[in-house]
Amino acid sequence: MILVTVMYPAGARFDVDYYLSKHMQLVRDRWMPHGLKSTQVVKGLRKADGGAPDYQMAALLTFESLEAFKAAGKAHGKEIFADIPKFTDAQASVQINEVLSQ
Amino acid sequence: MILVTVMYPAGARFDVDYYLSKHMQLVRDRWMPHGLKSTQVVKGLRKADGGAPDYQMAALLTFESLEAFKAAGKAHGKEIFADIPKFTDAQASVQINEVLSQ
């Protein structure tokens, strides 16, 4: 299993309503047929040491395999990435991770 | 619900065996009685653009509430943090997040 972390740095415009209701819905609609198993959205509150959060928002996308994620990106990545400027100016940091334990 | 993300930057020593078998077991043993609901460990593979991952390893800790996490940290944080040098020299970045959607 693969966890794709899409993290949006703090300090930029972010339309949470659009993000949750439109963008994440688009992600699920397009990618669930391509092996996206589940999504989780989290909002950064603060660092554990009390400082400001590095990331204001993050999406955690669980795919059944790396191959599935690659195929999903190939099939619909362009449409999904083109939707991002509608809710934020932040440059998302996207990392691909292997799930070692649940 | 709260997701605490503990992310270990790439480029430092990291003993994966100790981390998974000893450290994460300690985290679960101490914090599950304090509202830790689940844990997930992921290993950074690469950035989506093909670059090296920012984080070599991350733990995602779901707590039932912010109050539970604070109480857990107060009760056992010292013991858990003291265990970190046994498996890594990396300075973990710990962020507290609110779960907006599953």
Would you give an account of this structure?
Chain A is built from two helices and four strands. With 102 residues, chain A is an alpha+beta fold. Chain A has a four-stranded antiparallel beta sheet. In chain A, helix 1 (16-31) crosses helix 2 (66-83). Chain A is globular. The termini of chain A are close together. The interface between A and B is large, with 36 and 36 residues.
Number of strands of chain A: 4
- Oligomer status: homodimer
C-alpha termini separation of chain A: 10 Å
Structural class of chain A: alpha+beta
Shape of chain A: globular
Strand content of chain A: 35-45%
Secondary-structure element order of chain A, as H and E?
A: EHEEHE
Detail the poorly predicted runs of chain A: none
Total DSSP helices of chain A: 2
Q: Greatest interface and its residue counts? A: A-B, 36 and 36 residues
Q: What spatial order of strands do you see in the largest sheet of chain A?
A: 2-3-1-4
Main sheet attributes: strand count, strand direction, barrel closure of chain A:
4 strands, antiparallel
Q: Could you report the average pLDDT of chain A, rounded to the nearest whole number?
A: 97
Fraction of residues of chain A in helices? Answer: 25-40%
Q: What Rg of chain A do the Cα atoms give? A: 14 Å
